[in-house]
Structure formats: C-alpha cells, structure tokens
Amino acid sequence: MCFFFISSLQTKRQSEAFFGAIYASGVGTSIEEKQYYIKAFTKTGFHGGLNYYRATRMNFDDDLEYIGKPYTVPSLMVVVEKDPILTPEFVAVFKDDLFEDMQNDSIEEGGHNVHTENPEGLNRVLDAYLTKFFAKNGVQKEA
C-alpha cells in the first residue's frame, strides 16, 4: 500500500474507490463500516495516521539502544496464511533469537485484518495461547 497515495484521498469519490478496493471482499467490514471510514477520512484526511510514518526516523533513533537486545516479554506471532502484506515468507525471516519467549501459531483463513475477517479463528489462537500462558504462570482462567 502506498502511503503517498493514501494521503491524496481528499474527496468522497477517491475514498470510496480506495476503501472499495481494499475491502472488496466485504469480509469483516460491513457497508455501514465502510461508509463510516469514508466519511471520517474524507472529512479529516489521513494526516493523523500518516504522522506515525512521518515519525519513523525519530522512532528509529530512539530504538538504536535496543539493537542486539532480545525482547524479554512473552510474545505470540500469529501468521495469517493469506495476509498479502505480512506474508508467511516475510514473517519467516524473523529470527527466534530476537525473542526470549516467543510462541508461533497460524490462521489459514483471513488477511491483514484478520481480527475482522476471521475473529473466531483469531480468538481460538489467542485463547489457546493465553490459557497456556496463565496455566504456566499459576493463574487460573475465569469461566
């Protein structure tokens, strides 16, 4: 996705075309939700969201002190087989030595927005991970 293109979406027609293409399958995003986003981004533009990418250099500089230091918090990597952005091949290059305690799981159905496209599948993966995590740490899951 080209963020320069996104920043140029200023009209309702441009926004409808963009969101219609991105969410063409309709899975996970209702017509009402699409219209909400179209209205919001037509009114305000993408400047707020794009500021994250504008700050990339500052964030990079702040993160330099962590180079070579593994993440120490328990982590879960969920790979979605049909994610067109974070493809399984792309995710495969993540080194296990970057994380002291990383679990891996995958979901076959869904894409980059799996939380809306396949919430049941994602919830199964998260529930299994959290159940195992809390059992290992002596915390019981409430019913």
From TrEMBL:
UniProt entry keywords in alphabetical sequence: Hydrolase
InterPro entries given in the database record: AB_hydrolase_fold
GO MF term (any one): hydrolase activity
Top-rank taxon, per record: Eukaryota
SUPFAM superfamilies, alphabetized: alpha/beta-Hydrolases
Name recorded for this polypeptide: Bifunctional epoxide hydrolase 2
Organism, scientific name: Mortierella polycephala
Classification lineage: Eukaryota, Fungi, Fungi incertae sedis, Mucoromycota, Mortierellomycotina
